[in-house]
Amino acid sequence: MSKRTKFMAANWKMNMPADASDIISAAGEAAADSGCEAVICAPFVYLSEVATLCKNTGVSFGAQNCHEKPAGAYTGEISAPMLADIGAEYVILGHSERRAYFGESDALINSKLGAALAAGLKVILCVGETLEEREAGKTCDVTRAALLGALDGIDGGEFANIVLAYEPVWAIGTGKTASAEQANEVCKDLRDALRERYGDAADDTRVLYGGSMNEKNVAELLAAGDIDGGLIGSAALDAQKFAAVIRAARP
Ligand code: PGA
């Protein structure tokens, strides 16, 4: 029997919802009901505000990126120790929007991952294929390569602080969701890749699905077996929808 607690993370991207306080308190109540872990990943400048809003709600918070160096002459950047300093628990790394719009490579993501873990942060590591890659039958090759590239040099102990997110690029922000079968197949393959590398510890790793997950499709995705939660964009900007997604994680 797996020890994997269900996990639902909001990725607010470059948005700060006016009703952030309502979203966080609704998420906290829903998470208490369903026994799920809930996390809000907010833009850097609002993290302190989100930290205050999360107090006593049971909801934790994190960032959506960090720099790979701890400090120094990197104008405009934010480091992992800075995030830890303000109490952030998580950081999202390897999101496809960062790969596509900011040119982040597996090697850079690997450096950021090392920096985040060294600072005591937990990492939500994202991998996913484009539509062209899926249609060419390369989905699992692409997701495995991104996973193993990001984890290069990361040992079994550190690996316990990573949550994985399978996010097909074609499903993000498009309203198109991978079917439960498609999503589960890749989540299972990622866990198999982890098992080959880290042994049975892989059975304790949460593997999330992300890409237009919402209150309507969440139950079917979670029922598939290898999907332990979600990384949620649009639906996490709405208090009712996000709470409903979290409630669906009840065992
Ligand atoms: P979406 O975003 O739920 O709006 O598709 C998910 C993500 O990008 O993490």
Named once each, the bound ligands are: 2-phosphoglycolic acid
Derived from helix and strand composition plus strand pairing, the structural class reads alpha/beta
Q: Would you count the extended β strands for me?
A: 8
Percentage of β-strand residues: 5-15%
**What Rg, in angstroms, do the CA atoms define?**
17 Å
Arithmetic mean pLDDT: 96
Percent helix: 40-55%
Q: Sheet bearing the most strands, described?
A: 8 strands, parallel, barrel
What is the topology, as strand order, of the major beta sheet?
1-2-3-4-5-6-7-8
If helices are DSSP runs of H or I spanning 4 or more residues, what is the number of helices? 11
Order of helices and strands: EHEHEHEHHEHHHEHEHEH
Low-pLDDT stretches are none
Shape: globular
Cα distance spanning the termini: 13 Å
Task: Describe this entry's structure for a reader.
The protein starts with 6 loop residues before the first strand and ends with a helix. The chain is globular. The longest helix has 19 residues, at 180-198. 41% of the residues lie in helices and 15% in strands. It has an eight-stranded parallel β-barrel, surrounded by six helices. By secondary structure, it is of the alpha/beta class. It is built from eleven helices and eight strands. 2-phosphoglycolic acid is lined by residues 11, 167, 172-173, 210-213, 231-235.
